[in-house]
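Tutorial sheet, problem 5. The two components below are modelled jointly, 224 residues in total.
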Amino acid sequence: GNSVTQMEGPVTLSEEAFLTINCTYTATGYPSLFWYVQYPGEGLQLLLKATKADDKGSNKGFEATYRKETTSFHLEKGSVQVSDSAVYFCALSDLTGANNLFFGTGTRLTVIP
Amino acid sequence: DAEITQSPRHKITETGRQVTLACHQTWNHNNMFWYRQDLGHGLRLIHYSYGVQDTNKGEVSDGYSVSRSNTEDLPLTLESAASSQTSVYFCASSDQGKTQYFGPGTRLLVL
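Model answer (structure tokens):
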């Protein structure tokens, strides 16, 4: 079946620190992979995605590379800001037409000045 | 601008009552989804719909129902609310094979 395992939080970093949030997946076939972000009191927003092996998704300084050999999609940012404080969700889509999403448990990131 | 809205944003109800959460999207998307978000579980799929008159059960559908009478709306009904259904509920929509867009969420407390 489909599942996503995500790094446990919470994660607390100082401003300008390097961020890595680990994500590994189990799926049949070759799903698309996503990172969603949830800011306090808001719904989820798509941060980035990758649809095939070796693709790199990027947005707002965040990056993640689809690694088929390690079934991973780790999120990275070189220098975090206070405004990056949020909950980050890794997700994969199945291969049905509607692309139903399977989510990890989320990782809360707090960035302190 | 197209959007997806949910109402109410907050709801307190009592055990055994019927509750309906509304979801409305103006993107004209065929696919709509309901998720619940609980600590330690991330988001779990409750029900989804691929179009008008189509509904399907997700991972955690027991105690919930949906109906799709038009493209824009997918209301979620809790037939007899239970304390285990205290959660934050998110609606989402997408075009075929495209990114899902999420609503702002409804926080439900069942006493």
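Marking note: Residues 22 and 38 of chain A are 17 Å apart (CA to CA). Full credit if you identified this.
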